[in-house]
Amino acid sequence: MVSRTIYSKGDIMDDIINFFQSWTMAGIGARLFLATLAGVIIGMDREYKNKGAGIKTHALVCIGAAMAMIVNEFILRSFPTSNTDLARIGAQVVSGIGFLGVGTIIVTGRNEVKGLTTAAGLWVCAGIGLAAGIGFIKGTILALLFVIFVLRVLEPVDKHLRARARDMDLYVEFENMEAIRSFLTGLRAKGIKVTNFSIYRQRQAGLSPSATVTVKMVHHGDHETWLHEFSEIPGVLYVEEI
Question: In what helix (H) or strand (E) does residue 131 lie, and over which residues does it extend?
Fold first, then answer.
């Protein structure tokens, strides 16, 4: 009589997890492959949007973080009697990746901050790499799915809410300095509050004065409509939301 071994889905999943957690060349390679795949997927979104850190950067960050945990586990296995903290190298990766993220954040000449999402992506990419490197496969896959959800699904929601927010950051160019006063007077006439106003380039070599302005509208509405109204104020040459 021939007996048959029946594997449930739970058994297959356990075998896969055990394979990733195994201290073999194949197991270590599988961890690094998963880390690379996670970095590539996150980097593709940034690359598609022409951001500073793309596929290669995210993949390398994820691989480096995974390798840090693999090395940490190697030390623990090689010196089992030593007082080694398994999370020590991983903790340094979490704090150290912040310096790399800072390099992607820039403040433009219009006082516009760019690169925050890319910096956050690099940080979470390092966290996913740490999980992959230690063999925490379920956490790696779930975190990757949530990152994809945030980057691809929540972005339209974020844009919609931002487009109807009461607060707006504006970049405005004026005909002359007197036009600035007319602009502020026009805003007050519409019941709009000015919470921040900075002139960052005055008339030099024939350049028109310009400023960055933060305003609070009287109600929520389409920003394109507000921008059209602002452009109609006498003395305003150009206005856009930043």
Answer: helix 116-134
